[in-house]
What we know:
The chain is built from 5 helices and 6 strands. The chain is an alpha+beta fold. A hairpin with a 2-residue loop joins strand 4 (about 115-125) and strand 5. Helix 4 (about 95-110) packs across helix 5 (about 140-160). It has 2 domains: about 1-85, no CATH class; about 95-175, 2-Layer Sandwich (Alpha-Beta Plaits), CATH 3.30.70.
Amino acid sequence: MVNQIVHNLGLPPIEKTIYIEDVATKEEIEKARSIRMVEGKHVIPVPTFEIKRDFSGYLLDSLQIFKKNKGEQPYISEKSVIRPTFTYLGDYTISTNVFKQITMHIVKSMPEVHKATKLEVQTYQDGIFIKIDVIIEFGANIKKTLLKLKQAVKGDIEKYTSMNVFDVIVTAKSINVNTNR
């Protein structure tokens, strides 16, 4: 089935296949199956940070499981829990005001930025675009400030909402020469 999907999507051939049995015990597989049937969640035996942002629109949790194998030191294994959007548990939405508030919080926290004059958020099913016009404080490095703001907005929105941010377009519209904020 996987090879058929790869073929249908026109992707290059699969280089390596990792079977679930190679990375999880029978007990873990049975527990994951049980969680799927009872709670409608998928448990994937990889740490959350390894799951790509392609899962935007899904709720992610991580399970930390204390494990001890014979003759080994105890350790904590992390599993990722994903609730598919097609399950019976319902939909969720994030208001564009949430993205705007996160963005404005970042703008206000940056002393190099006097203020934002315009903020637009365009939402799509699989992510968002953000456009910000700002006034930069006199003496600030404009290029570095715009890049810092862009990275902070993209990073925080993805971190706090798990939504893909396709792009953040930041434009310096003017410079504030008045030193009083």
